[in-house]
């Protein structure tokens, strides 16, 4: 347990006018008025309290793999959780803090011969972000393996924060959704109940999925993964729809619809957020014009007029 008496005040850690391009996988984004890198639950709570007491907007940011900040940046406080990342085990349960990388969680599970998370291998996000979006891949989704989590619930009117535990049902998961998208509940850590497995088989499955992601070129250029959700009522994936509309390779500035995966937009080097945003809008408009299908964004847009 940390010695609370010797912790630095959160005010001493808050930085001003920080570029967000280094905090997102798109490698774009203007400056945040304030940014703090938290390392534990005390700082998490203190950072939010600092903001709400001053009526300053705040945004909880993990690894920045599913978000696009505008070139104007963010007028408020960015609370970066990337250093709030402990992972530990109690029997078949793994507890991971919100900022832990998904691949770090998977490697930890593998080291302990625990199976159930392999489908998320290679996902470039944090535990908090994955739970927020109910991340899914290769036939699995995170809501099937999480059992509970500790959360902060913020009452901005009364400027109070309380801690609570939520079980899986209370997290209200559905396709690419969770209760955390409501805007006042924030995950501190999550508990995953896994099964004992054969370590060699676990490693083989993880290697297979990571190799598949590499073969699709997912790591060759800065990107934020899938831009749009899949609407299965359309009978095909959003990537297939975009591809059939002839949009692969379409560019705005240095942002491009990826030739290897039409639901990815890549930064070819030197793109800005405006390029990416304009390309997202163009894709939506062209798909609607050609097919009548309204695509639903998966990416979180911050600082844009929508």
Explained architecture:
The chain has helices at about 10-15, 40-55, 100-110, 125-130, 200-215, 240-245, 275-290; strands at about 15-20, 30-35, 60, 65-70, 75-80, 85-90, 95, 115, 135, 140, 145-155, 160-165, 185-195, 195, 250, 255, 265, 300. With about 300 residues, it is an alpha+beta fold. The strands form six sheets. It has a five-stranded antiparallel beta sheet, sandwiched between helices. Strand 16 and strand 17 form a beta hairpin. The longest helix is centred in the last third of the chain and has 19 residues, at about 275-290. The relative contact order is 0.14.
Low-confidence stretches: 1-6
Shape: globular
- At the third CATH level, what is the topology name of the largest domain? Uridine Diphospho-n-acetylenolpyruvylglucosamine Reductase, domain 3
CATH architecture of the largest domain: 2-Layer Sandwich
If helices are DSSP runs of H or I spanning 4 or more residues, what is the number of helices? 7
Main β-sheet: number of strands, strand sense, barrel status? Answer: 5 strands, antiparallel
Question: End-to-end span in angstroms?
Answer: 44 Å
Primary descriptors:
306 residues, alpha+beta, Uridine Diphospho-n-acetylenolpyruvylglucosamine Reductase, domain 2, Uridine Diphospho-n-acetylenolpyruvylglucosamine Reductase, domain 3, Uridine Diphospho-n-acetylenolpyruvylglucosamine Reductase, domain 1, 5-stranded antiparallel sheet, 18 strands, globular
């Amino acid at each position: 347990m940390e010695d609370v008496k010797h912790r630095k005040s959160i005010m001493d850690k808050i930085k001003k006018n920080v570029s967000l391009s280094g905090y997102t996988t798109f490698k774009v984004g203007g400056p945040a008025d304030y940014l703090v890198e938290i390392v534990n639950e005390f700082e998490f709570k203190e950072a939010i309290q600092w903001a709400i007491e001053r009526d300053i907007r705040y945004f909880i940011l993990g690894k920045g793999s599913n978000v696009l900040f505008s070139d104007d940046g963010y007028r408020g406080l960015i609370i970066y959780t990337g250093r709030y990342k402990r992972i530990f085990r109690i029997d078949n349960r793994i507890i991971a803090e919100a900022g832990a990388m998904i691949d770090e969680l998977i490697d930890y599970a593998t080291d302990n011969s625990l199976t159930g998370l392999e489908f998320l291998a290679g996902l470039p996000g944090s535990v908090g972000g994955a739970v927020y979006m109910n991340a899914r891949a290769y036939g699995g989704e995170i809501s099937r393996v999480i059992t509970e989590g500790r959360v902060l619930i913020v009452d901005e009117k009364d400027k109070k924060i309380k801690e609570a535990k939520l079980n899986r049902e209370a997290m209200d998961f559905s396709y690419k959704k969770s209760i955390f998208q409501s805007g006042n509940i924030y995950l501190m850590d999550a508990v995953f109940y896994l099964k004992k497995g054969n370590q060699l088989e676990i490693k083989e499955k993880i290697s297979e999925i990571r190799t598949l992601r590499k073969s699709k070129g997912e790591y060759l250029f800065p990107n934020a993964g899938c831009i749009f959700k899949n609407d299965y009522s359309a009978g095909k994936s959003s990537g297939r729809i975009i591809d059939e509309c002839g949009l692969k390779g379409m560019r705005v500035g240095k942002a491009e619809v990826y030739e290897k995966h039409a639901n990815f937009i890549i930064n070819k080097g030197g793109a800005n957020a405006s390029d990416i945003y304009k390309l997202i809008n163009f894709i939506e408009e062209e798909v609607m014009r050609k097919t009548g299908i309204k695509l639903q964004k998966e990416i979180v847009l911050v600082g844009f007029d929508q």
